[in-house]
């Protein structure tokens, strides 16, 4: 916990210093003021902490269960594997949310993060964050389900983490990228996980235009839920219990 706290503090301070330095000689860039850019960047760091629990050390990743054969117990318990996976992810996200919310309160107090423009903005942002984490849950689930066909998903996770951070706006807001890159990201679910909620928070997307963005997030939730449900059914056919 001490290491996680130290890492989070260092990341927030470095990111805030970087973006303040970038805006030292300009007032507005890509439609963002310095305060908006710093707020966006700090919130992006805090958001990544929601799903930062180290499952590998606890030997509780799907890849490890597939390697050691313990994945069979997911199908022998009274609790269905998809429900167990969902409850485990919910606990992980609630734990990460405590870190993120505590960090948000501290950053708000020291001035690294600006408060939402209004109560409506805060409400829409909260709903968008919920939908965004829901989309991210299904994206991570798809990668874990890949193990039922490949046994290992280490390379896929590395690719996913990079794509998620790049296409969702963790490294930098998407408005700084070329038009073709922004257009490409709209056809992928990553933008719905982080870029949309933070854009609503900093005011890049007005509350009056929030409905289409929320609808798109909800559509990704439904589409990925149906897709992962199909994969769960097919994955169950590939699990074999030998010797008992």
**Secondary-structure element pattern, one letter each:** HEEHHHHHHHHHHH
Low-confidence stretches: none
Tally of alpha and pi helices:
12
User: Beta-strand level of the residues, as a percent range?
Assistant: under 5%
Q: Helix/strand/pairing class, anyone? A: mainly alpha
How is the main sheet built?
A: 2 strands, antiparallel
Intertermini distance: 41 Å
Calculate the mean pLDDT score and round it.
Answer: 86
Helix proportion of residues, in percent?
55-70%
With strands numbered from the N-terminus, the spatial order across the biggest sheet is: 1-2
**What is the CA-based Rg, rounded?**
19 Å
Shape: globular
Number of strands: 2
Keywords: Membrane, Transmembrane, Transmembrane helix
Transmembrane segments: 94-113, 120-143, 155-177, 214-232
Protein name: ABC-2 family transporter protein
Organism: Streptomyces mirabilis
């Amino acid at each position: 916990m001490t290491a996680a706290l130290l890492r989070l503090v260092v990341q927030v301070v470095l990111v805030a210093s970087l973006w303040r330095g970038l805006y030292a000689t300009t007032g507005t860039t890509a439609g963002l003021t310095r305060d908006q850019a710093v707020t966006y960047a700090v919130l992006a760091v805090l958001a990544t902490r929601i799903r930062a629990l180290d499952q590998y050390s606890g030997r509780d990743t799907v890849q490890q269960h597939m390697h050691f054969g313990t994945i069979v117990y997911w199908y022998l318990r009274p609790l269905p594997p998809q429900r167990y996976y969902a409850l485990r992810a919910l606990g992980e996200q609630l734990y990460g949310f405590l870190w993120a919310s505590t960090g948000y309160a501290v950053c708000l107090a020291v001035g690294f993060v600006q408060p939402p423009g209004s109560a409506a903005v805060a409400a829409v942002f909260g709903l968008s964050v919920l939908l965004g984490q829901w989309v991210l849950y299904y994206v991570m689930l798809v990668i874990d389900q890949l193990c039922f066909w490949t046994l290992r998903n280490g390379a896929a996770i590395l690719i996913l983490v990079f794509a998620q951070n790049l296409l969702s706006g963790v490294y930098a807001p998407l408005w700084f990228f070329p038009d073709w890159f922004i257009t490409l990201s709209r056809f992928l679910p990553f933008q719905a996980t982080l870029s949309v909620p933070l854009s609503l928070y900093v005011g890049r997307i007005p509350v009056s235009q929030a409905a289409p963005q929320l609808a798109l997030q909800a559509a990704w939730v439904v589409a990925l839920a149906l897709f992962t449900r199909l994969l769960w059914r097919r994955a169950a056919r590939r699990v074999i219990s030998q010797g008992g």
